Amino acid sequence: MVWQRDFAPELGPLTAPVTFGGDVYVGVGPVVYALASDGQMVGRADLPGTVSSLDSSGGVLRVSTQEEDYTERFTLGAPENLALPVQERVVFPPDPAVTGWLAAAADRVPAAEVPQAARQDPANPFLLLRAAQLAGDSGDSYAALSGVRRALGLTLPFPVWTQLAARLDAAGFSAAATLALDRARRDAAARGLDPALPVSRAALSAYGNPSNYVGILLDQGRLGRAETWMNHLRELSPRFEGASALYLRYAALLEAQGRVGEAEEWRQFTRSLREGSLYNLGPDDTLVIRDVARLAALALLLALLAALLTLLARAWRAQGEDTRAHGGRVRSVWRRPLTRARLSFLSYASFGERLVVALLGTALLTALGGWQWANQTGQGLSAPALNIGTYGGGWYDARLGDLNLRPGPDAALLTGLNAQLSGDGTAARAAYLQAGDDACALNNLGVIAQGRDDAAQARDLYRSALATQPDLAAPAYNLGLNPTEPGTLFQQTYRRGEPRLCYPDRRILARAVSGDLSATLAGDLRRPLDLIGAGDAPPTRLGAALLASLLGLGVLCLLLLVPRAAAETRLGRPAAYRLLALLLPGSSLLGGAWGGVLLLTWALALAGLSPLTGLVRFAELPSPASPAVRGALISVLVLSYAVNLLAVLLVEASALAQRRQERREQG
């Protein structure tokens, strides 16, 4: 035996060693080690999945990685600077077992064995840092600084740089931590990560969890170091999940120290991230829309029930008289169903009143559809594949198929970006051409043209994109107009000289994953039974409510065609009807133009106050527990009752005057 190298089972499965170019290659977990003829490590490749095989039969060294449902293949270059270059683009999945493998491998080494392990694996920066800390603890500051410099001289993926920066910071090497963060941004930029794209909490955690470390620094009151990390997040991943809360917390701490200008600048930056979201509501846009739809649905339901109850009270006596000859209200349902349908209590309402009720039903169906659309869109926008800070890679491809994107320009843009970031310009161009005159697609076609050294066509495409969407930053940047948006500085700093790609904002992604509200409602109309679980989706209470609303609206529309069952004089104004007219503002005035408005105003105020009961909650809307909100809603409620009382009194006075006039004429 010439030499031997042992790997702990906890590091992952091993592949069969392969000899290539005089070196021995072996896969361990998600990395490939290159070992020289004397057993010394000369290079390491960090890959996005567990290495399943190595192959050198074709004159090049190829490696395959295998995860649950996908396989990726890469080509390795010759070792240099303790690294194995990978010719293809490597996109790391949001999996801490992959991105945190080096740190976990270093942490499992006992302290007494760290110096030897660092000599055997000089490309593991965490081993080098642990060895440097041990040297510093023993008083050898030169060896400690030398170990830190060796760690900073390695070639590492950005998640490892971020993890290393946190450990350097905690160990007191602040300047080295700042340099590691800069290396992390440069590597992330080279791999295609962009500040225009969102990053989920899970992905950010796998990428080194910088937001968590910022929270630790803020808890410790170390605002000086926190500023470095906050700027790192702002440059690389400003749209990470939970960003607004962290930015505002940091701004509040700055303001408490008297740094009011800096605090306001961070607040302004937080507000600027709302651009491109749905209705500029920010990252919680679908939650806000969902709560607005829920509030509107509750208000419309209250208004509809109030209108139906009042109309029932007015028609009760006349309906009882008309159905007596057919067996009564109940028995006539099966004895004379057609006659009973013509004598429903809504048949006694005027056409105008029935029309208002039908409009309320239509609005309720639309509100429930908006609620459903917000749920579906929010679920689609939070899909892991769309929240890793970039597009492409095996993990992304495997997860993107689960989204079932709607065919159209928006889905074509995602397909094109995936191909373009992976270096397939031909496939990207074909996808962008399917997007038609989409401004983003035109800009990215210009980037492809510029890559082919066709500057004239590239500028024409950039101008066309800017003419189609004048506020789009990417073509403006490519034309040298220097727009101010978070991705511009990042592009200038870390991808200088390269044209800027255009990435979809949340509005584009929302159309790609669920379409607009009309598409949702159209799908419900085409497949109504899917609302109660007849299709692939499981049944939900919202689906049942939508189906019930759809059926009720159909009945209301049919009743519009039924002749009125009794005249106004016969119906009169029964006592129960008058009482409900006072208790339910606007419900007795539906025949007039303002009756429906008054009824909706009352119902909206009541729905807004409903969270005080504890039965419902609108988390993203102003709470009625706030004195200002509660006072405003109560004022609207009182005003609706006051206006209704005045209107009812005028109607009663008019009816009384009419009866007196009739008695005079008869007398």
TrEMBL record:
Protein name (record): Tetratricopeptide TPR_2
Family annotation (InterPro entries): TPR-like_helical_dom_sf
Transmembrane regions listed in the UniProt entry: 295-316, 355-374, 542-562, 582-609, 629-651
Keywords for the protein's UniProt record, in alphabetical order: Membrane, Transmembrane, Transmembrane helix
Superkingdom field: Bacteria
